Amino acid sequence: MASSSSSSTPFCTYAIHHATNLHPRQNGTNNSRFTPRKTQPLRMGNPSIQPKLNHHQTPHQHKNVNFAHFLQEGNVNQVLELLGQTDFADYSDFLSLLKLCEDLKSLELGKRVHEFLRRSKFGGNVELCNRLIGLYVKCGSVKDARKVFDKMPERNVGSWNLMISGYNVNGLGIDGLLVFKQMRQQGVVPDEETFALVLTVCALVDGVEEGLMQFESMKEYGIVPGMEHYLGVVNIFGCAGRLDEAHEFIENMPIEAGVEIWETLRNFATICCAKNTLRASVLYRRSSIKDYRIHRD
Known about the structure:
Number of helices: 15
Helix content: 55-70%
Largest sheet: none
């Protein structure tokens, strides 16, 4: 969408804090029963000390002991080798494996775990598929993430949020908005996190009108905007260089603007001040005064 700013400088590059680190919460059901095993610092080689076979253990029980040991040590290759020998991994094992691969940012290992997961009885589990989507996104393979998403027998709102965020952090914000449109068309009810993500996307693709429309549409779902949503709108105006509208929006907020809101406006004003914009200088001083008063109080 067209911007009213006369400058071609990508304001949002400077002013949105940690935009590429935004990740949705993985909402779902029944995941409170499962707790992934804690892991030690990650290693991909063979451990120097392996658990010994107890005389009272069967070979299968021994493999289970090895499996748990390798997971705790972070030896992904050893775990995958055992998975190739027998089929005994449970939900929490796969969850731990995917977490290890995500921490390693290893697309190759992630795909190997994916193949074992696909052949297991947990292949259609929503939370494991969500974790897999997050893994592929973190590894920069949004194409693989979308394949997992499309093949899921069922999804929750967290699945949709992950795809919206995944496209956004990989520089494909427009595709993220298309996922949001598809989400609504299929009757999936978005949550607060969904709208926060959508507003972030709109800021980065210069979608002022789209962002304002989605902000207003939150009322349709009975969602009361939080500070992150108001901040999202300020970012939308700021990225488009429309600082007067951003300032007016802040002044008319039904809740008191926090420090982050005023700091964001000040950051945008700083950019415009560098371009010798008189109005930006005025807004910079105003936002600085507001920020000072909030800190003082």
